[in-house]
Amino acid sequence: MRYLLIILALNIILTFELITIPQMAFPLGMNNNASIVVGTNFSSQAVIWTELEGVNIIGDGEFWGISEDGKVGGSLFNDEGKEEAVIWENGIITFLGNIPNGNSCDSFYSSGLDISSDGSTVVGMGWKDCSVEAFYWNSQNNIISLGSFNGNNTKAQAVNSNGLIMGGWAENNSGTRQSCIWDINGNSTLIGSLSPWSNAGEITAFSEDGSKIVGFGASIDGNDTEAYLAVEDFNTIGGYNMIGLGVPNNFASFNQSWAFDISENNVVVGQYLYSGTNNWRASIWNENLETMIDFKDYLELLGIEQIPNLTFLKAHSISNDGTIIAGTAQESNGNWMGFIINLEEELMGQMMGDLNDDGAFNIQDIIMMIGSVLNDEYVFYADLNEDDFLNILDILILVNWILE
């Protein structure tokens, strides 16, 4: 279902587009303009949604990523009833096989878990004697095992745009998963965590060039698991500067947040534990917010309030410019569905301080800001000192901008 919502607030017209996909409960990947989204449904079937044709259920399995040239990476069940890594392209399924000397374990043979945006590389894990090894596939070399880690399990579930850097996790001898990257030669590096006492964590996504990594892992300051952003820094031990993204306020038994994807302008989407032990909510972080916040709260910060009665459970994918987000939502009747939300007009069409969105700072912006302060209304684009409050300080900043 497609919603086009127009909200009139403070004489600003805010529009955003929300598309729901009931046949795809878990959108797991999308191309950059969200015209194609892939994932899975509650029946564990691989699903493709396109803007032009709608939903296409491919078969038993799951799709995790799509390249900009239309190749889909994921897993489908083969003729022997085993899950096997695949590439799907224009209706043609190519089974990719397994790691060298691999075999099946129960119904698993190999799993495709991501594809590079240039379509050259699929990453995943292969089964061998009911243990798993990370791998990558390309058309020149077929499947290349990235090996075990000191004899322990490994898994690759993220890849940068040209397939040169892979990420996921590697287990230590006690079975703890650790955030790990590999190059195409199989060299592995543990990037650490936010905690000085534990390397526990997983990598979930890269920026296009691989210089930024998101994931989740061990934390401090009362957080059990925390989403992180790792920024390449050759002057830092381990080569990455780890930035904790925080955990939104919650009623949960544990403080937990996860990051799933990052845009090229450093917007990170994920989820956090909202209440109990398994009641999750979608979350988002950017450099202005400083800490992850609930996704619905973020929409309200942008001035969007009249949204359909949905609970946003997970934000899983984001476009390179940070304006389009896909994830999982729940209706009031309990049904789960995929969603795609386009915030381009809110995020790209308006600059901080330009409250009437006319491309300039003027007296009309001051009048609108004063009205917001007097009515105790928070407007994201009016919070010029980024302290999460709207007051006289923001008005003074805007006055100075106009006088300069």
Give the proportion of residues in helices: under 10%
How does CATH name the architecture of the largest domain? 6 Propeller
Mean pLDDT: 90
Largest sheet: 7 strands, antiparallel
How far is the first residue's CA from the last residue's CA?
47 Å
Q: According to CATH, what is the topology of the largest domain?
A: Neuraminidase
What is the number of strand segments?
Answer: 29
| Domain count | 2
Give the class-level CATH name of the largest domain: Mainly Beta
* Broad shape: globular
**Number of helices, where a helix is a run of at least 4 consecutive DSSP H or I residues:** 4
Task: Please give the structural blueprint.
Elements: E1 2-9, E2 12-21, E3 26-30, E4 36-40, E5 45-50, E6 54-66, E7 72-77, E8 83-89, E9 92-95, E10 110-115, E11 122-128, E12 131-138, E13 142-147, E14 154-159, E15 165-171, E16 177-183, E17 188-190, E18 201-206, E19 212-218, E20 225-232, E21 240-244, E22 251-252, E23 257-262, E24 268-276, E25 279-285, E26 293-294, H1 295-301, E27 310-318, E28 324-331, E29 336-342, H2 344-348, H3 363-374, H4 392-403
Parallel strand pairs: 22-24
Antiparallel strand pairs: 1-2, 2-29, 3-4, 4-5, 5-6, 6-7, 7-8, 8-9, 10-11, 11-12, 12-13, 14-15, 15-16, 16-17, 18-19, 19-20, 20-21, 23-24, 24-25, 25-26, 27-28, 28-29
Helix pairs in contact: 3-4
Descriptive terms for the model:
Neuraminidase; 2 domains; 7-stranded antiparallel β-sheet; 29 strands; 9% helix; globular
